[in-house]
Design goal:
Elements lengths: L8 H14 L3 H5 L2 E9 L7 E4 H15 L5 E9 L3 E12 L2 E14 L2 E9 L2 H8 L1
Parallel strand pairs: 1-6
Antiparallel strand pairs: 1-2, 3-4, 4-5, 5-6
Amino acid sequence: MADQHPEHPNVRLLRDAYAAFVRGDLEAYWSACRDDFTFHVPGLSGVAGSYTGKDEFFRLIGIVMELTAGQFQEEVEDVLANDRHGVVLAIHRFERYGRPKEYHTAHVYRIQDGRLAECWEQPRNSEDFNEAWS
């Protein structure tokens, strides 16, 4: 029997933000974020680092699009959230150097006052992640 619990508002916040991102509407994604939102990317590749604020976040997206020749795709598998945290399970797909790349990841969010405050990329397999971006 399907779980009939009502959806937490932060699940909807994350689903709407990711739907905007997938359709290329970065401003709509950003509207879900605090002004000091920080996105943390692990590893040693050209995308690794911490990106704080709108300009830095948009710079990260620019780097991702440049490295993937604009072919970066994100598929949301599931979204979980409560008042303080959210997790988006996703699959990332793109091509680099003419070769397809794919990895599963979790974006772990800290949510504050109903807005996205911080996110940590947590790839399921760090070797796949590092290989995809190297």
